[in-house]
């Protein structure tokens, strides 16, 4: 065979081979595209690979085609058209794959810059997407000014949090006292935290600021709140209301004692009631430790108005997986009561040892669950320390103004008309109080032993949307 003919054959074979590669490339792209679209996979194509493959495979194909001698002009034109269509399809295909890939990467790393709202919590719960909820809460929290260290580049604390007393510019004596006790508690249990606190003398800094705060009667203008002075900020600015230790252990299973929930749905229909021995011992231990250790109790109230208790909320650090699993387990344990009501809110309050009653209020939700976690022997008066639930609801006609701004006064008028008819449920560790969240209620006064671990802890879970009066839906801020 003459050399020229051999060369020509070689070129034709090369062309066919390249075209085969081209077609399989197409098929590959199509499958990769379908695969990427269909699965939430972790398929990772380096970003430039599509372009590179395109160049490697298509340019030689065109080159080979141009130099191949073909039998007649018509098939030549046909091949040209086929190639054009194929090139177009391939380019589109690779573009499509690349875009899908980019979208995927963006999704994987899309920063959760918006805070997670109560509606978001409900949406995730309604979809049973606890993973998604945890990830969103964690991601947003990890970008905020709560994280220790310099503030540059972090999301500032939202006004709504600052307005609730969870900012970083003022505090109260009891809040700093709580923080000192909590840091000492954590340091005794976690060597790396102890080392960090020692290195920066954090506890001493808190104690110094605590000592600068005058007694309550000298702080009447601010109802007991203390605005930080420059020397206070120099002392604790880098540490106050920061997420120094936020444990997130693997949740224990099971969370609940199934026996205790056997008739819970039926009892709910009859009015406010208590479930005793609700959590399994392992779950009780896990949840209580979490709430004792997590440095996410950022909220202080005005001491002169509300007394001493610090608060933590789900969208500002109180998002350990175990807490969300607990909410999920409760929904499953009371399908009739909570089945249609996803979790809307979760918060926790930790009290000073003595307490003289919070004002009467109702919470914007369908069902209200309160869990008590501190051991009974901390309670110095077993008949008190619990919750008073009144049998009256705000009427469906109550305006937002009556309901929110004039809350206590409005409630009092209403409660007087029912002669303060109430169900009073005394404090007991591992007891869950369940009631229609629209019912007016208040924490009973109490006396608990001194000491960090003896502080009364009250974990509140709110499910669903409130029904005021007769099933009237109500909107409102929590
Ligand atoms: C990316 O996220 C959006 C919204 O969260 C979703 O609609 C979309 O399907 C996601 N895309 C991929 C490729 O996962
Ligand atoms: C101590 O705390 C750190 C930071 O929160 C955590 O990563 C670590 O697991 C803790 N160690 C123990 C022994 O609990
Ligand atoms: C609850 O009702 C009882 C009467 O059943 C009444 O004596 C008591 O004062 C009420 N409690 C409150 C806190 O209103
Ligand atoms: C728990 O705390 C919340 C917020 O202060 C309050 O509404 C609720 O009555 C408290 N529950 C108990 C049982 O103390």
Can you describe what's shown?
The protein is elongated, with a radius of gyration of 32 Å. It has about 475 residues and is an alpha+beta fold. Helix content is about 45%, strand content about 15%. It folds into three domains: about 110 residues; about 100 residues, no CATH class; about 230 residues, Sandwich (Jelly Rolls), CATH 2.60.120.620. It has a seven-stranded antiparallel β-sheet with strand order 3-11-8-14-6-5-4. A three-stranded antiparallel β-sheet has the order 10-9-12, with no helix packed on it. It contains 17 helices and 16 strands. A hairpin with a 3-residue loop joins β15 and β16. The longest helix has about 35 residues.
In CATH, the homologous superfamily of the largest domain goes by the name q2cbj1_9rhob like domain
Output the radius of gyration: 32 Å
User: What spatial order of strands do you see in the largest sheet?
Assistant: 3-11-8-14-6-5-4
Number of domains: 3
Q: Profile the largest sheet.
A: 7 strands, antiparallel
Transmembrane segments: 12-36
Keywords: Membrane, Transmembrane, Transmembrane helix
Brief account:
This protein has helices at 3-38, 49-67, 73-109, 118-126, 130-142, 159-166, 173-187, 191-199, 202-212, 230-236, 264-269, 281-293, 303-306, 321-333, 335-338, 400-405, 407-417, and strands at 170-171, 226-227, 273-275, 299-300, 309-313, 343-351, 354-355, 367-372, 387-390, 422-425, 432-436, 441-443, 446-447, 457-463, 467-468, 472-473. It has 478 residues and is of the alpha+beta class.
């Amino acid at each position: 065979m003459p050399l020229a003919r051999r060369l020509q054959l070689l070129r034709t074979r090369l062309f066919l081979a390249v075209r085969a590669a081209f077609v399989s490339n197409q098929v590959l792209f199509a499958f990769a595209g379908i695969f990427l679209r269909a699965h939430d996979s972790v398929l990772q194509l380096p970003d430039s690979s599509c372009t590179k493959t395109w160049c490697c495979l298509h340019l030689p194909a065109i080159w080979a085609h141009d130099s191949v001698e073909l039998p007649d002009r018509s098939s030549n034109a046909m091949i040209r058209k086929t190639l054009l269509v194929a090139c177009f399809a391939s380019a589109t295909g690779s573009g499509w794959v690349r875009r899908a890939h980019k979208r995927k990467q963006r999704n994987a790393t899309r920063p959760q810059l918006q805070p997670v709202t109560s509606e978001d919590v409900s949406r995730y719960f309604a979809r049973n997407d606890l993973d998604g909820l945890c990830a969103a809460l964690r991601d947003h929290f990890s970008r905020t000014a709560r994280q220790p260290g310099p503030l540059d580049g972090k999301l500032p604390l939202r006004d709504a949090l600052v307005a609730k007393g969870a900012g970083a510019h003022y505090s109260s004596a009891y809040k700093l006292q709580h923080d000192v006790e909590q840091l000492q508690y954590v340091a005794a249990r976690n060597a790396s935290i102890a080392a960090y606190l020692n290195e920066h003398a954090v506890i001493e800094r808190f104690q110094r600021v605590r000592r600068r705060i005058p007694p309550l009667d000298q702080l009447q203008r601010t109802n007991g709140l203390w605005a930080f002075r420059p020397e206070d900020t120099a002392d604790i600015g880098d540490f106050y209301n920061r997420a120094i230790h936020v444990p997130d252990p693997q949740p224990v299973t099971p969370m609940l004692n199934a026996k205790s929930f056997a008739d819970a749905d039926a009892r709910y229909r009859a009015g406010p009631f208590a479930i005793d021995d609700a959590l399994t011992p392992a779950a009780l231990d896990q949840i209580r430790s979490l709430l004792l250790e997590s440095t996410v109790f950022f909220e202080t109230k005005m001491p002169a108005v509300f007394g001493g208790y610090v608060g933590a909320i789900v969208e500002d650090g109180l998002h350990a997986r175990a807490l969300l699993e607990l909410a999920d387990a409760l929904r499953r344990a009371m399908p009739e009561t909570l089945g249609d009501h996803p979790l809307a809110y979760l918060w926790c309050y930790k009290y000073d040892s003595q307490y003289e009653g919070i004002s009467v209020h109702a919470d914007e939700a369908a069902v209200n669950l309160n869990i008590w976690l501190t051991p009974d022997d901390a309670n110095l008066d077993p008949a008190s320390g619990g919750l008073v639930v009144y049998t009256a609801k705000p009427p469906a006609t109550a305006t937002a103004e009556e309901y929110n701004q004039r809350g206590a006064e409005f409630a009092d008028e209403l409660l007087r008309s029912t002669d303060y008819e109430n169900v009073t449920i005394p404090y007991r560790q591992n007891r869950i109080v369940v009631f229609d969240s629209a019912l007016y209620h208040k924490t009973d006064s109490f006396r608990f032993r001194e000491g960090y671990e003896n502080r009364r802890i009250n974990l509140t879970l709110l499910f669903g949307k409130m029904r005021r009066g007769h099933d009237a839906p109500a909107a409102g801020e929590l």
